[in-house]
Design brief:
Strand content: 35-45%
Radius of gyration: 29 Å
Shape: elongated
Number of strands: 8
Oligomer: single chain
CATH architecture: Beta Barrel
Structural class: alpha+beta
Number of domains: 1
Mean pLDDT: 83
CATH class: Mainly Beta
CATH topology: Porin
Distance between the termini: 66 Å
Helix content: 10-25%
Length: about 210
């Protein structure tokens, strides 16, 4: 090995040792610590499935009718958000498309609905993303009574027309990564667009499975 080649190798070793020191002197900034990560788009277009029950408008004719069941069986499917934002603020404004239905076991008004559900975490960092609030807005088609108030059948509300507007809210608690339970309230009415507008207000609960 010639003296020239030995000197070349020694120079390479010296340069390799100097690189970390130079980088330190330049004050290279550490990688930023991200406190939020945008949710990944799920593999399935279905985000969540929910089932539950509700009491049919306790203060109305449908809730007071003697000899009839006042309970509803409810199910709904929430689809994945169509857009995923990196910013958590804008992400909260994107709803999940929702389709569902409710069957009254006593032959009173049953209905199907379509709309959007917004979900907001309640103090996510403090409560560990366990508590959430849902809001729904959309439309509902039903098989209830839409005729004149004077001829409303016993045990039915005067709903005026179909479809109706449907608004709903839920307070939920996540049991695990996939399972959650919710207390729910929903209201349906025609917002005064038809002659009669008694509407329906139901109270209940659901259990959900998130994919």
């Amino acid at each position: 090995m010639t003296a020239t080649f030995r000197a070349f190798l020694a120079g390479l070793v010296t340069a390799a040792n100097l690189v970390p020191a130079v980088a330190a002197d330049l004050g290279a900034a550490p990688a930023p610590a991200y406190y939020y990560a945008a949710p990944a788009q799920p593999l399935s277009f279905v985000s969540e499935v929910r089932i539950g029950g509700a009491v049919q408008d306790p203060g109305s004719a449908e809730g007071k009718a003697r000899g009839f069941s006042k309970e509803n069986v409810n199910g709904e499917i929430l689809l994945a958000k169509p857009v995923i934002f990196q910013d958590p603020f804008w992400q909260a404004f994107i709803p999940r498309p929702t389709v569902g239905g409710s069957y009254n076991t006593g032959g009173r008004t049953s209905y199907a609905y379509l709309g959007a559900t917004w979900t907001v975490e309640v103090f996510p960092e403090t409560l560990g993303r366990k508590i959430f609030i849902d809001g729904f807005f959309g439309g509902a088609a039903h098989n209830g009574y839409t005729g004149p108030k004077a001829t409303t059948p016993y045990g039915f509300n005067t709903l005026g027309c179909s479809p109706l507007f449907r608004e709903a809210a839920a307070l939920g608690y996540r049991l695990t990564e996939h399972w959650s339970i919710m207390a729910t309230i929903e209201h349906m009415s025609n917002a005064g667009l038809c002659a009669n507008n008694r509407g329906l207000t139901n109270y209940g609960g659901k259990i959900g499975y998130t994919f």
